[in-house]
Design a protein that fits this description.
With about 220 residues, the protein is an alpha+beta fold. The protein contains 9 helices and 8 strands. Strand 1 and strand 2 form a beta hairpin. Helix 1 packs across helix 2 and helix 4 crosses helix 6. The chain is globular, with a radius of gyration of 19 Å.
Length: about 220
């Protein structure tokens, strides 16, 4: 597939990621997601439509075309491979690799991408517990996962995956002992919607916005 600009890759990836989280993608979604002005989004969408990467409905809803989805997938794959390389080969902490991969994903040559695929494969999970293509909440639920915010008190859980696009959140979760594959117990659900939890690092209070970004699987009794 022919190379496209960094900006176009960012927009296409954002559409695919936002769709996966159940959002109806409109211009305002992309402006918020990418931290750019509405005018910048309008200009980018005109170019993406011209090049056949997106379609915009009369009500403003944005959809990827087949070529747009393929380009977004390629960018996500490079991001995924770089995160795994940084963690598995270089030992970078899981809560630091996302931002580094965001910077590097556009600079990977096809030859280097092929070497990464040869070494790491394309079916593994990233250091945050996520697959290459984003999963919708419904798909995660079908796999038996729930968010920590929805998990009954008294239960013991294994952390399956984390929302990875907020570096401050990732560092905060690390400091509370929440990590992919790690254990967490919900001690109590408080009246203010916070959770009292216990992890290998100790006891903490977790607010709902953070708890909603942690997907867990219940540990069977015994």
């Amino acid at each position: 597939m022919a190379a496209i600009s960094v900006s176009k890759e960012d927009y296409l990836k954002a559409v695919l990621e936002a769709e996966s989280e159940g959002e109806t993608v409109i211009s305002a979604t992309l402006a918020h997601w990418l931290g750019v002005s509405p005018a910048a989004v309008s200009m980018a969408l005109r170019r993406l439509k011209r090049d056949g990467f997106v379609q915009v409905q009369e009500d403003g809803v944005i959809h990827l075309t087949e070529s747009g989805r393929e380009a977004a997938h390629r960018t996500l794959l490079r991001h995924h491979l770089i995160e795994r390389m940084l963690a598995e080969v270089f030992g970078m902490p899981w809560y630091e690799v996302h931002d580094e991969a965001e910077r590097l994903e556009h600079a990977v040559s096809p030859a280097f991408e092929a070497r990464l695929l040869e070494k790491l494969g394309d079916t593994g999970i990233c250091p945050h517990g996520n697959a290459v293509l984003p999963e919708s909440p419904a798909h995660r639920s079908r796999r038996g996962l729930t968010t920590l915010a929805e998990s009954p008190e008294g239960g013991m859980y294994t952390v399956a995956s984390l929302y990875e696009r907020d570096p401050q959140l990732l560092r905060f979760l690390h400091e509370t002992g929440i990590a992919p594959g790690g254990a967490v117990r919900v001690l109590r659900r408080n009246y203010d919607q916070t959770l009292a939890i216990e992890t290998p690092a100790g006891s903490f209070t977790l607010g709902a916005p953070a708890a909603e970004k942690v997907w867990v699987k219940a540990v069977s009794a015994g």
